[in-house]
Structure formats: C-alpha cells, structure tokens
Amino acid sequence: MSSILVVNAGLLTTLQDGGRWGYQQFGIPVAGAMDRYGLELGNLLVGNSRHEVGLEFTYIGPTIKFLDKTSFAITGGDFQPQLNDKKVKMYQTLYANKGDILKFSNPIKGCRGYLTVAGGFDVEVVMGSKSTYLRGGFGGFKGRKLKEGDIIPIQQIPLNQKPTTKIIPVDMIPQYENSKTIRVILGPELDRFHKKGIETFLKETYKLSNQWDRMGYRLEGEKIQHLDGADIISGGINLGAIQVPGDGKPIIMMADHQTTGGYTKIANVISVDLPYLAQMKPGDEINFKSVSLEEAHQLLRKQETKIVDLQNRFNEKDRVISGSANASMRIFNITVKGKEYQVIVEERE
Amino acid sequence: MDELKFIPTGDNGIIIEVGKEINKETNKKIRALIYCLQNEEVNFAEIIEMIPTYTTIMLIYDPTIIKYKDLVAKLSKIEEKIEETILPPAKVVHVPVVYGGAYGPDLLNVAKHNQLTEKEVIQLHCSNQYLIYMLGFTPGFPYLGGMKEKIATPRLEIPRQTIPAGSVGIAGNQTGIYPIDSPGGWQLIGRTPLKLFDPERSPVVLFQAGDYIQFEPITEEEYKRIEGASRVGEYQVKESLMEGRVNHV
Prior knowledge:
heterodimer; A: alpha+beta; Cyclophilin; 2 domains; seven-stranded mixed barrel; B: about 250 residues; Gyrase A, domain 2; eight-stranded mixed beta sheet; four-stranded antiparallel beta sheet; elongated
C-alpha cells in the first residue's frame, strides 16, 4: 500500500473532501475543504472524483515524504512547492518517486494549499465523508490535524488507471488578491437592519481580523446598524452567511460553521466567491457587492460547465493514453542550458 | 393556516418560514412539511439538506439543476398537502439520569433558588415529556421545550471550562443535555450514561427533531451498568410512542 509520511506538519494540515452533507439536521457541521474549487481542480489533475479527499494546509505548509511512487498535484494558494529542493509547478500533474521530499515556502498568494494524490487518501469514511471535523474530533486522520510522524495511506488504484499528465488551463486558475470584492446575496434577515446599516455594509471596506479559523471569519470595520437588536429565534445557517451580532461587526460562516444560530444575517456570500474568501488572511481587505440570485446562479452554472468539460477532456486523455494495461510512464530530470526540466514519457502498447 | 414564506439564503439555500413564534403548532407544521418532502423524495432530488428549527426549515438545494422560482413553486404545492397529512405518532426517548452529587453539582443551587427540596426538583424535572424542537449548536444537542417554570434557574455567573458529555442542565427556563464535552454555564443537575452522539454508531445521534424526551431518575449503580453496557453496544435505549395520540395537524 502506498502512503506519505508527514515530516513536518505545518500550522494546520487536515484531510478534507467535498464535505459531510446530510447531517446538519442533527447539528453536525459540513466541514470539507475551505477552497472547494482548489480541491476539485487538484482531484481532476490526478484522475480522482471531484470531491475526493486531499490534504489542506494553512499558512505554513507541511513537509511530506513520499514512501512510494505517487502521482500528485498542488493547487490553491501559491506556497512555492519544491520537490527534492527543486521548484515544481502548481496546477499540473506531478510525479514523485519513493523517498522524494515535498516542501513548501510561505504563501505568496492565498493562504490555503491542497495536495491531492491519485486514488485519494485511504482513511475511514465517517457519515459519508473523509473530512476532518476538528471540534468534534472525528473524520479525516484520527479526527485531528496532522502531526510529525503521521503516515497517511493512499488508496491503491488499478495500474491501467494511472493518471496521465494534465494541466489546468490558465483561465481556470484563480488569482488570489489581498483585497477583493466579494459578491453576496442580501438577506435572509435584511428587514432587521437599518437602511443606513445596509448602506454601510455595501459601501465600507472590511478587514479580516485575526479571529479567523475554519469555523468563521470576524471582520473589522464600520459598525452595521440594526433596527431593533441583533437576536432572532435560532434558525439554520448556510455556508457563507454573514452574521451581524450586537457589536455590529460582521462574521462570515466558513466550512466548519455551526448548523444553527440566533444572530441576524445581513447577506450570504455567493458560491463562486467562497474559494476567494477561503484564501484570504488576517489584514486582507473585503468589499461587499450585492448581486441577484439569477446572476449568482448563472456564474455557478458557468463554472460548473467549465469543470465538467475539463473533467471530460481529462477522462478522454486518460482513456486514450493509459487505457492499455501495459501503458507505462517514465520520468526524466534533464538539464538544458543550465535549466532543470522534468520530462515525462507516456508509452502506449 | 398561515402561508409559508420563502426567503433565499445565499444561492443554494431557502429559509421556509412556517411560523413566527416557538410553539407546538408551528413545530407540527414543520414536521408535517418535512414528512411530506421525505415521502416525495424522488420528486425533490435537488434538495441536499433539510434542517428543521424552531420556526423555520432551511433547505440546501443544488442550483445547477433547478431554478429558485421553480423549486419554490414545487414547494408551494406541497403546502396544500400539509393540511391533510396524518403524522405517525411521535417517539418518546427515555433518558436515564442520575441526579445530584458529583453528577449534578448544581442540583442544590436549583433547589435553593426555587425554595424546593432536591427531591422536588427531580420530581418536577421528570414530570414532563419535553419536545425536541431542533438539534444544533453541537452535534446532537437537543433544543427542548416544556420545562416547568418552578425549576427555572439563571445560568452560572462564571461558566465552567469543561462540562462532561451527558450532563443534564438548566439555563433560565430551558433544560438540555450536553452531547459532547464542552464549556458552558448551565446549572448541572444530573448526568445520563447515554451517548447522545457517537460518530461510530448508526444512527450517530439518539434524537430527531419532533421526538420527545422523558427523563427517568436512576441510581449511581444503574448509571455505571448502563454506561458499561452502552460501551459494548448492549444497551437498548428505551423508546415508546406518545400515548394514544396520533398527531394531527
């Protein structure tokens, strides 16, 4: 069985997939990747299903030793990945030999990275998901963040399903910024806010505070005025909901958010902008822009079509090139005029 | 019956407002609506989650396969069926509790605050069947209604750092059970050996919104016996149906 060894765990490295859906009615948060788009692209590059589990690391990346030959990919924020001290590219399929060491530097763009491996990590499925829910202490690898010395097994894939080399088209690679306009749909408790409060929310710039975790982001900035108090009868909370408690400072609900709550919600971040939010860090600036439900749906459908098209193209490539059980792949590291290149030769029968 | 109100919450959520106040009538309508949607599951493949709460249901749907207004139209049709829905009788889950002592260090507080004896507090706490309005806050935490005013007690002034899983407490006019170890300021009156939440078990939580809870006093010996039996999966949680009552809406 293939596996990886955690040489250094980084700040907060957990296993996350597309999330644990269907259990919010029991008070169980969805969890899953903060930047689901990043995780999905990573999975496509290694021939996995879109929502397969990957390694999510935050702010300080881990150091990983591959204990076997492994196809992998790195997506999300730019942590300048290096394989055996040589810089490797993000957003494309990469190959490691037994004993290779993968390292990361400080992120120059974004703050969450994803490592996906062909086959996905072989951990127990808890309530339909491999995601780690830290506060509950379950899912992922032993219900906790990874630490030095952990060995994470990789799900074995049939030889003829070995992924071919793929590259994410440039127009699909997100550009993470330190300052960003995040689009929202106003409501559901819009009628609980003063007109001036809504204006403030849409006009002012908010700063991400250092109370910033997988559960939620507290923002700093101009106070948002309520009409008559900040409390409502406890109700369901959606991912990306923007709660405004009594102090008038917004809190955005992220992947590990509680399922119910009693603060008024002024707006909800739209699905396609959640990955950008997931990549922001303390001190980054956010402006909110209201869009219609129709516009949000159009954007989401457009993105969905792009991902599905890419997946189909990738599958077709895999089918043609490695459909044969005898297909093999060889990796050469060559130097031309002092520059290092990795050359992958895919052979068909 | 009041008309349902639909409010978008983000681009993949709908809040269905069923009522304005926390009461049994609203809860029944919520249960009936969920029951109808579950019965017609095949026609609602776009619904990913249904989260019932005090006065609303939050639905999560897949907007890549249905438009908001089409889903609202479909849901509005279901509304007509609620009136004629006959719900199956509600389930009562019996929760054994050892009261007082180290298991319920604030039992005396609650008794003193209400000028009662400890025994009277236990009696009053067990005299009611509590409706589970919703689950939330932490995995498996039941929001209960129906506690007697006579034992209402304010929260502790200084919350405890850790409250062990299974602790039964009172906060204001609410009572509840902590499913997992957590900090909190409730007045602790007892503890149940039942595991409210266990990710390894199926079902992972003991309760569902719409069920009732009946607390039953037990001794420390029984507590230990049930705890041991639960650990090896040999304890059968006692359940019954609401007495001779079919819950019409």
